[in-house]
Design goal:
- The protein has 863 residues and is an alpha+beta fold.
- The chain has 37 helices and 17 strands.
- The strands form three sheets. Strands 1, 2, 3, 4, 6 and 8 form a six-stranded antiparallel β-sheet that branches. Strands 12, 13, 14, 15, 16 and 17 form a six-stranded antiparallel β-sheet that branches. Strands 5, 7, 9, 10 and 11 form a five-stranded antiparallel β-sheet that branches.
- A hairpin with a 3-residue loop joins strand 3 and strand 4.
- It starts with a helix and ends with a helix.
């Protein structure tokens, strides 16, 4: 016996992947074994396993290779061996994506699907649905309906899951299987019930009324499956979300009732839903009580779920979580460090200032033992503390600096740097401390992207500090010791000090002169560029090209340059490219374990691909601005239409997004008849050839602006015109005949000043900018506004001018400060003062622009 144990141990020690060094050519040659008269199941199963392994490892099979392997595999249908047959189904499923003429095995799979061997049937259904296209599905529809209501749970579940996959290609066909799915929703098997509910929900996804009826009926019935109940809770929560009327109360009652279910899964799902729905601490009390019990559970998964969800509550309802402080204190010593991390960060967010030092000490005792993703959670919690307790910035910054010196990946280090940068920007008292810690960090920073970012911050904030000269050494060290990208960033940072601190300018010029000898082209070019500008000693030039540089959207800048290369005869104007919008970071819960950075896309980038389909669009020049869509119809009518205004220097493209909500009609030759104001001229119309049920398509109308800016303000009347063809509501097949012409009136929409200007709120240096523009043309006027409240009037003015509400300042007397770029590249500054009186709100509005007609246009937009 001891010898046997030793042999097993030796085998485990020397074990390796038997498929590690497979050769695709050899494996494909081995498939010849499938043609033998006497099939050896064990050997054939091994060959099929090798093929599946290669496919899942990303091995590239040509179409011919996949087809040959596919048809060789079909020869194995002659074997009745169960395990081999199931491997055949798996292989057919995978190869069908690459091979040709796979439809030939439909009859064999249909035979197995309707046979008596249950072990064949479920796998055959999955394979059949993966190779059958929408046109062939009707041939097996009867068999699918029978499989859905089959007594064998594996068969029924396979049919339901296949229906879920097929809903993306044949939604109308799957919708006809809803009655069979309804029969199985009360199945004793938990997964069958869950999959049946999924099919029912998917078949009603475009019909809110049917979904409401389904949830209302099922919430009153007795569903055994905990999985189905979890899905039902999510559906009820979706119906309640944003609905404060009495109609949502039955769903809230159902979710609260689920808090008393015997399944822990259902209880947690209900608590999670309430946490995301309720607005007050009193409404949250039942869910918090359940989560508090989870925190004291013997199961680590429940403790983690309770701590994580309570942590999510801390951002909006810290008082609701405060009652769980004792339970969370007990979790600090939990053996599961993930639970301990969430407990400590939650206590940090809800505790008093006096408890911060004690909790920070407890974190430091185990922070080195947890992985980076949990360290990031700790960093985010500390970042929130920096905002909550500004007086603790010294100890918090020191703790972050200590974490910055520890080992960790780029994402972890970036999170710490973000926290320190936020501390520097939000707390003036912490600026010197934060910058010092960052200076020490870049001395040993191995991440180029992070070093460049910190150097950019030093260049922006360093000149404004009390002792700006102390940072020059740290920045210039990067020029001597670092790689090209970091040296280039250091040159830019040094130039900021020369531009903003006059007493340092002579030394900065010497440093930039040394940088002109660098071996890297980019470093030399930047040094020469900044030296030349600083030598002029022109404040306006230095401000425009070093201190306050406009940042265009990189993606749209690239597109604009490509379009310019097609028509290089016109000069390129970088001011016509939309600026990069600063996305304000929303305060997210500190409990996000998986750190994902969503790609931020501007609205111009979202529509760029659709606009590229318009013939001759490159002749219009770079896109200046895309405005938010405006609904031109009600939401619940036959045809939904909204318009998007894409503004260019001399043209505007109206994109009409159309949706046909009638499943028994197809609209053809869809176009928009537009009545434009005087001086506007329609250049071209790109119609939509066919508009099928519930699929959005577009109609484009290219219009040229009037020559005078003041004439660009006006209203447009639009009518949707099309040819209607009746069709089968289930298959979408049009009826014979040519159809008939019809039209649908759309709501009127306007072209305003806000559509043609890229505006922004005034910054800290707005007063200096206004004074520098004292010599440019200015337009002034006084208005009496209809609003009675000064705040409402200020918001209305901002809306007309396209300015953000952040442009408004003041209390009794409101002041609006802002500016922007008008289409064509003309800069403009706006200043308004609003005061209340017995007659209403009086406003004095001033606009300055190198083009007087642009300034006059802003006044006309308000008047």
């Amino acid at each position: 016996m001891s010898s046997l144990k030793r042999d097993v141990k030796d085998e485990d020690d020397n074990s390796s992947n038997p498929y590690q060094n497979l050769d695709k050519t050899i494996v494909l040659q081995e498939t010849r074994e499938f043609n033998q008269t006497l099939v050896i199941p064990r050997k054939c199963s091994l060959i099929l396993t090798k093929i599946l392994y290669l496919l899942n490892q990303g091995e590239n099979f040509t179409t011919q290779e996949a087809t040959d392997a596919f048809f060789a595999t079909t020869k194995l249908f002659q074997s009745k061996e169960i395990m081999l047959r199931r491997m055949v189904y798996l292989c057919i499923k995978e190869l069908s994506k690459l091979a040709q003429d796979v439809i030939i095995v439909t009859s064999s799979l249909t035979k197995d699907m309707t046979g008596k061997e249950d072990l064949y049937r479920a796998a055959a259904i999955r394979a059949l649905c993966s190779i059958t296209d929408a046109s062939m599905l009707q041939a097996i529809e009867r068999y699918m309906k029978q499989a859905i209501v089959d007594k064998n749970p594996a068969v029924s579940s396979a049919a339901l899951v296949s229906a879920l996959h097929l809903s993306s290609t044949a939604p109308d066909l799957v919708r006809r299987w809803a009655n069979e799915a309804q029969e199985t929703i009360n199945s004793d098997n938990a997964m069958v019930s869950y999959h049946a509910l999924g099919v029912l929900v998917l078949s009603r996804r475009n019909d809110k009324l049917s979904t409401v009826k389904l949830v209302t009926r099922l919430s009153k019935s007795h569903i055994k499956s905990p999985y189905s109940l979890c899905l039902l809770i999510r559906l009820a929560a979706q119906l309640c979300d944003g609905d404060d009327s009495e109609a949502s109360q039955p769903y809230i009652d159902f979710i609260e009732c689920c808090l008393r279910h015997k399944s822990e899964m259902v209880i947690y799902e209900a608590a999670h839903a309430i946490v995301n729905l309720r607005k007050t601490a009193r409404d949250l009390a039942p869910a918090v009580s359940v989560l508090q019990l989870f925190c004291s559970s013997s199961k680590a998964a429940l403790r983690l779920a309770g701590a994580r969800t309570l942590a999510r509550l801390t951002t909006e309802h810290p008082t609701a979580v405060a009652a769980c402080a004792i339970d969370l204190e007990n979790l600090i010593s939990d053996s599961n460090r993930s639970v301990a991390t969430l407990a400590v960060t939650t206590l940090l967010a809800t505790g008093a200032e006096s408890s911060v030092d004690r909790l920070m000490k407890q974190i430091s005792s185990f922070v080195s033992e947890i992985p980076d993703e949990f360290k990031i959670i700790v960093v985010r919690a500390i970042r929130q503390l920096c905002s909550k307790f500004p007086r603790k910035h010294q100890s918090l910054a020191a703790f972050l600096a200590g974490m910055l010196r520890d080992e960790g990946g780029l994402e972890y280090k970036a999170a710490i740097a973000d926290a320190i940068i936020a501390l520097v920007e939000e707390n003036p008292d912490a600026k010197e401390t934060g910058l010092s810690h960052l200076c020490e960090f870049i001395e040993d920073c191995e991440h180029t992207a992070l070093a460049v970012r910190i150097l950019h911050l030093l260049g922006r904030e360093g000149p404004k500090s009390r002792h700006p000269s102390r940072y020059i050494r740290f920045i210039y060290n990067r020029v001597i010791l670092e790689s090209g990208p970091v040296r280039a960033a250091a040159v830019s940072a040094v130039a900021q000090f020369g531009a903003q601190v006059p007493e340092l300018l002579p030394n900065i010029k010497v440093l930039l002169a040394r940088c002109q000898l660098d071996e890297e082209d980019e470093v030399r070019d930047r040094a020469v560029y900044y030296s030349t500008i600083l030598e002029t000693e022109n404040p306006q030039l230095i401000n425009d090209f070093i201190v306050n540089i406009p940042k265009p959207n990189v993606v749209l800048l690239e597109k604009a340059l490509r379009d310019h290369l097609l028509h290089p005869e016109e000069p390129f104007n970088i001011l016509s490219v939309p600026a990069e919008e600063v996305v304000k970071e929303t305060k997210k819960p500190i409990v996000e374990i998986e750190v994902r950075k969503p790609v931020q896309m501007s609205i111009e980038e979202i529509y760029a691909e659709q606009l590229a389909k318009i013939p001759g669009i490159e002749k219009l020049g770079p896109l200046f601005k895309t405005n938010l869509p405006i609904d031109l119809t009600e939401a619940e009518i036959e045809y939904r239409v909204r318009v998007v205004k894409h503004v260019y220097a001399r043209h505007v493209i109206f994109q009409f997004e159309c949706v046909n909500t009638l499943n028994d009609q197809i609209l053809e030759d869809v176009h928009v008849r537009l009545e434009v104001p005087p001086e506007y001229e329609i250049k071209s119309i790109v119609p939509c050839q066919k508009l099928v049920y519930n699929t959005q398509d577009n109609v484009f109308v290219v219009v040229e602006y009037p020559c005078a800016f003041i004439d660009s303000l006006g209203s447009f009347m639009a009518t949707l015109e099309f040819v209607v063809r009746d069709c089968d509501p289930n298959t979408g097949t049009p009826d014979p005949g040519e159809g008939y012409a019809d039209s649908y009136p759309l709501e009127e929409f306007e072209m305003g000043c806000s559509d043609q200007i890229r505006a922004r709120a005034g910054g800290d240096d707005w007063e200096q900018t206004w004074e520098r523009a004292a010599n440019v043309p200015e337009a002034n006027d006084t208005f009496v506004l209809s609003q009675t409240d000064v705040g409402d009037a200020a918001k209305a003015v901002c809306e007309h001018l396209g300015l953000p509400n952040g442009s408004i300042s003041g209390d009794a007397v409101k002041e609006i400060r802002g500016g922007g770029i008008f289409r064509g590249g003309a800069p403009v500054l706006v200043r308004a003062r609003l005061a209340g009186s017995s007659a209403g709100v009086t406003m004095k509005l001033s606009a300055r622009s190198p083009r007087e007609d642009v300034a006059q246009l802003l006044l006309a937009a308000v008047g």
